[in-house]
Amino acid sequence: MIMPTVMKFGGTSVADAAAFENVAQIVGARIALAPVVVVSAMSGVTDALLNSTVIANEGRVADATAFLATTFLRHKQTASELLSNPAAADYVKDVDEVEKEVADYLRLIAAHPEQYRALQDAVLAFGETLSSLLLAALLSERGFIARQIDARKCVITDDEHGRAAPLLTETFGATQAMLFPLLEMGAVPVMGGFIGANKNGKTTTLGRGGSDYTAAIIGAALNAREIQIWTDVTGVLTADPRVVPSAQTVERLSYGEAAELAYFGAKVLHPKTIQPAIEDGIPVRICNSREPEAVGTLVCAQTETTPRTVKAIAHKKGVTTVQITSARMLGAYGFLRALFEVFEKHRTVVDVVTTSEVSVSLSLDDATSLPLIVEELESLGTVRVEKGLAIICVVGEGLRGTPGIAARVFSTISDINVTLISQGSSSINFTFAIEEERVNEAVKRLHEAFFEEKVSTATI
Ligand code: ADP
Ligand code: ASP
Ligand code: MG
């Protein structure tokens, strides 16, 4: 049985003709690995498509359509730089066709606002459709056997538009049936990430940044040798490079470490990417498409657990905390269940939870349903909401059972008010909330303390 390598390229890796060319070279140089390529929309395209649906939803169909003109032009121009005829002309025809279909969907959005989320997914999917068509055409033009695959035939999901969950049995069956025959004939399947379809064939999307997740699911379905996430940085870094420019590549992470970092804001990996890989023990490698020979980060089951070592710091902004205080909690059972049922009912994910004798604090990053949630929680106790917070998460397997980490963190940022402190149940993370305005400063200082101090790099 062929053991393919799934190679996922993000939006910046296919931002323009030079980037596409580079991807073709990276894939071409690794044909022996039996690549299955998963590609994002060209950078900025999902945002543009999303904006057009918002405009259409306001009833401004002509504006919405006009808004996308440059996006379609950009695809055609990129193709004309990369392809010769007839491939270039065929692709231009495909783009024209897509442009018409998108215009139809935008009209439908204005006419049927009740179907907005489903129609929006249909529009968003065109970003990945267009990039995968172009990459497959380019690989063919460069002499490889490549086939564009409609991801909706492989990734079968539930009906949750905008954040659909793949149905694994259906997805694995469909993916194997579609892709193994191609791999056996030596072809490179090229599919869009992020998109899927429900059982009735209606387009769904997996949530922003979801192409990483697609790569992981496809990797699990095919029992891949490796899942490679090709992006614009050299692997997972010790902190977000936009905040800490001196952040360094972390060479190895355990699945647990990578999952925590992704969950708490390291955008380089979609939070759900690690789960499908864990089940079959498939290694995940994060590589830089601008520096293909650099080693990047390898995520796998084992990690060298340097004792007392912090591997990386993640953070995320836009966090809200909710504190429920009630004397009824004392010695009562059923209270926490009632509390969590409120969040479940409003389909709101809770990130961090801490409890004391008479209060529970929790953090959310999606506060859309907060007013309704608060109203219901008030029947359980006094509710206090705090907005404009950020979460910082310090991660490392070596933290397990290591004393002193909290002291080191708090002494480094002693002038910043820290709330909601949690040493994750896995004990490989130490997580807390602070006010959003000071998060960049705090991350910089923590990075300095854990990674830049002369004597012992990253030692507590
Ligand atoms: P892609 O388009 O390839 O999916 P993303 O923009 O989603 O790329 O993710 C890569 C970006 O993630 C990097 O450019 C970087 O700014 C950001 N990032 C945040 N935290 C980290 C981290 N700890 N390590 C690496 N990159 C990070
Ligand atoms: N194109 C999608 C997005 O921008 C998915 C992805 O790039 O992972 O969110
Ligand atoms: Mg991404």
Give the helices and strands, then pairings.
Layout: E1 5-9, H1 17-28, E2 35-39, H2 45-57, H3 61-67, H4 69-82, H5 87-111, H6 116-141, E3 146-149, E4 156-157, H7 168-184, E5 188-192, E6 195-198, E7 203-205, H8 211-221, E8 226-231, E9 252-254, H9 255-263, H10 274-280, E10 284-288, E11 297-300, E12 312-325, H11 335-345, E13 353-355, E14 359-364, H12 370-377, E15 382-395, H13 405-412, E16 419-423, E17 429-435, H14 439-452
Parallel strand pairs: 1-2, 1-8, 2-5, 3-5, 4-6, 8-10, 9-11
Antiparallel strand pairs: 6-7, 10-11, 12-14, 12-15, 13-14, 15-17, 16-17
The chain binds adenosine-5'-diphosphate, aspartic acid and magnesium ion.
Aspartic acid (ASP) binds at residues 10-11, 40-41, 46, 127, 193-194, 208-211.
Brief summary of the model shown:
With 460 residues, the chain is α/β, with parallel strands linked by helices.
Spans of 5+ residues with little confidence (pLDDT < 50)? Answer: none
Strand content is: 15-25%
The molecules bound to the chains, other than polymers, are: adenosine-5'-diphosphate, aspartic acid, magnesium ion
Averaged pLDDT: 93
Structural class assignment: alpha/beta
Helix content: 25-40%
Q: Which strand order spans the largest sheet, edge to edge or round the barrel?
A: 3-5-2-1-8-10-11-9
Characterise the protein shown here:
- This protein is 40% helix and 21% strand.
- α2 packs parallel to α5 and α4 (69-82) runs antiparallel to α5.
- The model has no long low-confidence stretch (mean pLDDT 93).
- The protein is an alpha/beta fold.
- The protein contains 14 helices and 17 strands.
- The strands form three sheets. An eight-stranded mixed sheet has the order 3-5-2-1-8-10-11-9, sandwiched between helices. A six-stranded antiparallel sheet has the order 13-14-12-15-17-16.
- The structure holds adenosine-5'-diphosphate, aspartic acid (ASP) and magnesium ion.
- The site of adenosine-5'-diphosphate has 19 residues, from loops.
